[in-house]
Each structure stands twice: as structure tokens, then as C-alpha cells.
Amino acid sequence: MKPMKPSFQKDGADKVDGGTGGVLWPSRICYLVVLATTLWAVASILFPPSAFPHPLVSSVTVSHHPAPHDSASEDNRTATETADRCAGRYIYVYRLPPRFNDDIARGCRTLRPWMDMCPYMPNCGLGRLLGDEGGVFPGRGWYATDQFMLDVIFRCRMRRYECLTGDPARAAAVFVPAYASLDGGRYLWNSTATRDALALDLVAWLARRPEWRATGGRDHFLVAGRTAWDFLRKTDGDDDWGTKLLSIPAVRNMTALVLEIDPWTRSNNLAVPYPTNFHPATAADLRAWQEKARALDRRWLFSFAGAARPGSNKTVRAQIFQQCGASSRCGMFRCKKGSECEASPGAMMRLFESSTFCLQPRGDTTTRRSTFDAVVAGCIPVFFHPDSAYTQYADHIPADPERWSVLIMHTDVTDRNVSIEEALAKIPPAAVKAMREEVIRLIPRLVYADARSARADFKDAFDIALDVVLDRVAKRRRRDVDGR
Ligand SMILES: *[C@@H]1O[C@H](CO)[C@@H](O)[C@H](O)[C@H]1NC(C)=O
Ligand SMILES: *[C@@H]1O[C@H](CO)[C@@H](O)[C@H](O)[C@H]1NC(C)=O
Ligand SMILES: *[C@@H]1O[C@H](CO)[C@@H](O)[C@H](O)[C@H]1NC(C)=O
Ligand SMILES: *[C@@H]1O[C@H](CO)[C@@H](O)[C@H](O)[C@H]1NC(C)=O
Ligand SMILES: *[C@@H]1O[C@H](CO)[C@@H](O)[C@H](O)[C@H]1NC(C)=O
């Protein structure tokens, strides 16, 4: 549906921050990630896995309490509040008119032209609770979650955020709880004027707030839980795809959390994990699943769940269907459409839970929810393009891609007839085991805890995203004060 950008340079696979390091990566965050990864590595040697179920907790917490600015401070709160565990982390949440959120949720029957989204709204956007399905979803925390429900999940979770403030002057960042992607998603096939109406209404509403005028919205953030491609329309022609949400100047001033960024015009957008079916409410529930995932019997070397795409059979996807179909070591869950795969979480997860490697070719865009389902299942993801994860979720994943995933360049499969099976079978069993362990440790960082839980005592995808937002905003404030 979307044209692919020119292929990322090959060494992008090894360099998570790609060629845009200076722009994207504040050096301190970069340092923290390196530090965190090092500590993680050291810790994983010192502590047996069961005693160390969520790595990074201790190390990344550092960013919760940013060091006092060494440049002349823009405010003198920092000094007086160092004892406050919320210092630098207070968030003010707007109370928006319901047309920007609750009214949209109430219209769940018409959020997508071909399907009723109401079954996906309950439980704070997690959807209905799933049954055990013959051991596929053991223990607690499994839901039939739609991949585009992050607006709802995130807002709900924010209500339980431990450092909310009613005083905007005290806030380190301001959250705009609009359902931006539910709104955009419902009108994708209507006129461009219809698609953009509510987003323009929102920025007009914001522009009138004193909180906005204080910084031009540069400390504001919002969630638009689809890929950036749905919000980057260039023209006003009705046959151009998407809304122009992310091109609106006011929104460009904010930080927008999306499921996939455009690595070429990243602006202030931040890519965060797709929601999966797993939403543990406590670290104990999480750990119980991690133990199970370690012990699963994985009868398939590799597997693929997805739909065929019309057109050329020279694509990686077509090759996967061909190679997987011809191999006795490949499991396949073939859907007629992507939505059919999503509607069968049990069948899909059963496959991933019994596979060592899970193939993740590009689809409409470079990323897929399936990558996150695979990680939850303890299945090592196999990518065919660095933009499918490494250049997207740098804050959530290990800096070294080889520790937890495999990259087979798509051109090797399509142009050089590389056998996926041979490439995977070549990896020594000890290396496979180490990678799987890394994948299983990654689970907490890539899932969204049950947003209703007051006891989500582990650092999840939400916590990590918020740390990044707070870091970025603090950095901008300092830059603004320093006159850049
Ligand atoms: C520090 O706070 C005091 C009062 O709390 C205020 O008058 C002063 O302007 C602040 N200084 C700076 C540099 O913001
Ligand atoms: C969007 O398009 C659908 C289908 O054509 C139509 O039923 C609906 O009324 C349109 N919505 C708006 C707000 O124009
Ligand atoms: C964006 O931020 C800049 C710098 O603070 C400000 O001058 C501008 O007015 C802001 N844009 C909007 C639309 O508020
Ligand atoms: C696909 O491959 C087959 C042979 O492998 C070929 O006959 C066919 O023309 C190709 N193209 C399409 C679009 O099927
Ligand atoms: C590709 O590889 C397969 C198996 O290794 C082989 O059977 C086939 O002939 C090769 N195709 C081409 C076009 O080289």
C-alpha cells in the first residue's frame, strides 16, 4: 500500500542509531543505553535467569532522576526537589472535551469500515480476557487485544501513573489524551477534509491553552497508535493515503508516540511496541510466563504467520511461502487477510510457541505486530530489513541486534536464492539458546502491563517510552535555555 523507501544501508543492522545518530540520539541517552546494556550483560552473567527476570530495571532507573543540569538551569525546582522521587517526572494530563476521546470510543461500532471494534474496547483497551486455549495462554494476563488500541491502553495507564500533577507549572511534560489514531483510522477512506477535521480541531483547542503557549507545545506528547505512514499525507488529494496529523506544525512541536516512524523524517516521533495479547498485572505473572516460555517444546525450526500478497513472486514474502511450504521444518499459519491472523490469536501463538525462529518480512510497512507476538512466545525473530525493528525501537531493544534476532537481508533471499532454512540451521545450538534467553528477558520491555493494575511492579514498554519522552523534553528545555 505504501511505497518502500530506498533500502537502508547495510551497516544499519549493526548500528542501531543508523546514520542519524547526532540528531536522534541525545548523547546522554545513548550513553545510558550503552551503560544499561553493559550492566545487563554483566548482570546476566552474575545472576541466574530466574533471579533476574527483568534486566535493566536498576540501570535504566537512572533516567528517572536526571542529574541536575550543569548548564544554568531553566528552573530552580530541580535543586529543591531532589528528595522527591517524582522530581523531573511529573506529568500534567489535559482534561479534553469528550469529542477527542470518549465520544470516539463510544462510536466503536464504526471505527473501521469492515469490523465492529466494540469487542476490543473493554478492559482499558485490552479487549476480552482469553481462555487457556489448550495451554496456549496459561496463567493470567492474556487478552484478545487489537494492534491499534494503544491510544486507549496508554491513556488508561496514564491515569495510574505515579507522578501525576494537577499543576501544569510543576509538570516535566504534558500529556494530550486524545484518541488520535482511532480518529484517523475511522476515516481513512473518506475525503481528506473529513480525515483531518478532528486533528485540526484539537490543535486549535490546544493553542488556546496557557499550558501550550508557555512552550509552544514542545513539552506536550500524544499517542497515535498506528504507523506514521497513516499520518504523513503530503497532498490534499482524496486518493493520497492517510491524514496529515504528523505534518501539522503544532503536532510537530509535540512528541508523538507511534507504532512505526519514518526513519527519514523522524521529526519528534517515537516508535513504541505494538500491543500484544499479553498484559501481565504483576511481575509474578510475568515471571511465571517467562518460566513456561523457556521450557516449551519447539518442534519447528522456523515458522511464519501471515497472508500472501498479490503481485510479484520475487518478494521475500513470496519466497517465504515457497521455502516454508517446501520444508518439513517450517510451520505455517496462512491467513487470507492480515485481519484473519489477528482474529485467531490462539492458532497464531500456538505456532510461535512451538517454533525456534519466527520470520518477520515487511508487510504494508516495514514493521509488524507479529514481531512482538513472537518475542512474547519466546520465538527468535528473523528480520529481512533493519527498519523492521533495529532503527525503530532502539530504546526498547538491546543495542546489539545479534543478541536477540537474526537478519537475513531481503535481497539475499530474492536475488541470491539464499535458503532461509540453511541460514538458520547453521546457527549453533548454544547460540540459539542464548538468543532465546535474551528474547525471553526482553518480554517485559515489549509488553504493556495491565493498565488497571496498581501492582505492575516491573518496567514495561509504557515505562520505557515515558522515560524517553521525559528525557527528550528535558533536553529540549535545556537547549531552548542555552539558545541551542
Ligand atoms: C527560582 O525561584 C524563585 C521563587 O521560587 C523565583 O523568584 C526565581 O525567579 C527562580 N529563578 C529562576 C532562575 O527561575
Ligand atoms: C465516511 O465514509 C463512509 C462510507 O462512504 C460514510 O458512510 C460516512 O458517512 C463517511 N463519514 C463522514 C464523516 O463523512
Ligand atoms: C512551535 O514551537 C515554537 C518554538 O517554541 C513556537 O515559536 C511556535 O509558535 C510553536 N508552534 C505552534 C503551532 O504553536
Ligand atoms: C512466479 O513464478 C512462476 C514459476 O516459479 C512463474 O511461472 C510465474 O510467472 C511467476 N510470476 C507470477 C506473478 O506468478
Ligand atoms: C534456489 O535454491 C534451490 C534450493 O537450494 C534450488 O533448488 C533452486 O534451483 C535454486 N533456484 C535458482 C534460480 O537458482
TrEMBL record:
Signal peptide: none
Record keyword Glycosyltransferase present: yes
Lineage, broadest ranks: Eukaryota, Viridiplantae, Streptophyta, Embryophyta, Tracheophyta
Keywords of this entry: Glycosyltransferase, Golgi apparatus, Membrane, Signal-anchor, Transferase, Transmembrane, Transmembrane helix
Localisation per UniProt entry: Golgi apparatus membrane
Molecular functions (GO terms): glycosyltransferase activity
Protein name: Putative xyloglucan galactosyltransferase GT15
Family: Belongs to the glycosyltransferase 47 family.
Organism domain of life: Eukaryota
InterPro entries according to UniProt: Exostosin (IPR004263), Exostosin_GT47 (IPR040911)
Organism: Zea mays (Maize)
TM spans (from-to): 29-47
Start and end residues of each Exostosin GT47 domain: 86-423
GO cellular component: Golgi membrane
Gene expressing this chain: LOC103643506
Membrane-topology annotation of the record: Single-pass type II membrane protein
